[in-house]
Write a structure and sequence with these properties.
By secondary structure, the protein is an alpha/beta fold. It has eleven helices and 13 strands. The protein folds into three domains: 62 residues, Nucleic acid-binding proteins (OB fold (Dihydrolipoamide Acetyltransferase, E2P)); 154 residues, Rossmann fold; 55 residues, Ribonucleotide Reductase Protein R1, domain 1 (Orthogonal Bundle). The structure holds guanosine-5'-diphosphate, magnesium ion and zinc ion.
């Protein structure tokens, strides 16, 4: 029996990087398929035990308990939630937006941040394409996220700006790289990992509003530079549209709101219209930004228009 890491999972076929340095194509043992619920089936980032078979393939015998999971939840019957784990054991979510082409959408940035908070995986905000606007304008666009406690790096994939800063943060970690289409995720990963050769999109298609979904399934790519690590290039935005956060947990997912939630008169306060709301008081006093509060309100009420 060998231990390994699931790099790719596609219709019942798994690619495993074994601890002894091999790549093995494996399937789940039949008995595991029977005893496991759909949500427990191996996903990328899972640590597994595989038995090497005489034909060179493998059979996955066990999935090790997950330290963390990055999942989406969908409403189930009678107020229950169904969990759909997308990546196991992620240490970091790198949320990539561009300074321009396309310009950043603060409502969407907040939705990505909320999902990372809900999953309790640390977030890194990557502001790419700084070459298009310059450092000062980029800081005006993204600096607020630094002030509320997020780590922000400013990069230009093609001009080679900020890549060392990004590399340091990814080293030795299992990171999820996500963000809207066309912001330069694949270009960044190709630059960080020569030889990766992920397909990159054409800006003109992004500008036409259609975007180009060149990444169709999530996969872990090894980083072979100093420090190692893995990055998952995820399908991103379309997947994110399906994420649902239980309404009572939403305010907590805006990290700078937490300090103010205890001050509400009602402990089931939705922070929309109740009297003596600590969060709305904090917005009025300027301790919480109106933009972030607006994101909260839109997510809670389902008004997702930008
Ligand atoms: N000006 C500029 N263009 C970039 C940068 N990074 C990527 N691009 C371009 O943006 C487009 C989309 O890049 P791609 O990596 O496919 O984006 P993805 O959809 O997020 O994976 C391509 O035409 C890239 O050449 C950058 O730092 N600066
Ligand atoms: Mg891409
Ligand atoms: Zn309140």
């Amino acid at each position: 029996m060998t231990r390994g890491l699931v790099l790719r999972a596609l219709s019942g076929f798994y690619t495993i990087a074994t601890d002894d340095g091999d790549l093995v194509e494996a399937r789940l043992r039949g008995r595991m398929k029977r005893v496991r619920q759909a949500s427990d089936i191996a996903v990328i980032g899972d640590r597994v035990s595989v038995e090497r078979l005489p034909d060179g393939t493998g059979a996955i015998d066990a999935i090790e308990p997950r330290e963390r999971r990055f999942s989406r939840r969908q409403p189930g019957p009678r107020g229950s939630w169904r969990e759909d784990v997308m990546v196991a054991n992620a240490d970091l979510v790198a949320i990539v937006f561009s300074c321009d082409r396309p310009p950043p959408n603060p409502r969407l940035i907040d939705r990505f941040l909320v999902v990372t908070e809900y999953n309790e995986v640390p977030a890194l905000l990557v502001a790419n394409k700084v070459d298009l606007v310059g450092g000062e304008a980029a800081r005006e666009l993204f600096g607020h996220y630094g002030r509320i406690g997020y780590d922000v790096v400013y990069t230009a994939a093609k001009a080679g700006i900020g890549l060392d800063e990004l590399r340091v943060r990814l080293a030795g970690r299992l990171s999820i790289v996500t963000g809207p289409s066309g912001v330069g995720k694949s270009t960044l990963l190709n630059t960080l990992q020569p030889g990766l050769q992920l397909a990159t999109g054409d800006v003109s298609e992004v500008e036409s509003g259609k975007g180009k979904h060149t990444t169709t399934h999530a996969e872990l790519h090894p980083l072979t530079g100093t420090g190692g690590g893995y990055v998952a290039d995820t399908p991103g935005i379309r997947e994110l549209g399906l994420w649902q956060i239980p309404p009572t947990e939403l305010a907590w997912c805006f990290r700078e709101f937490r300090d103010h939630l205890g001050a509400c008169a009602f402990n089931d306060c939705t922070h929309l219209h109740e009297p003596r709301c600590g969060l709305r008081a904090a917005v009025e006093a300027g301790h919480v930004s109106e933009e972030r509060y607006d994101s909260y309100r839109r997510m809670l009420t389902g008004d997702l228009a930008a």
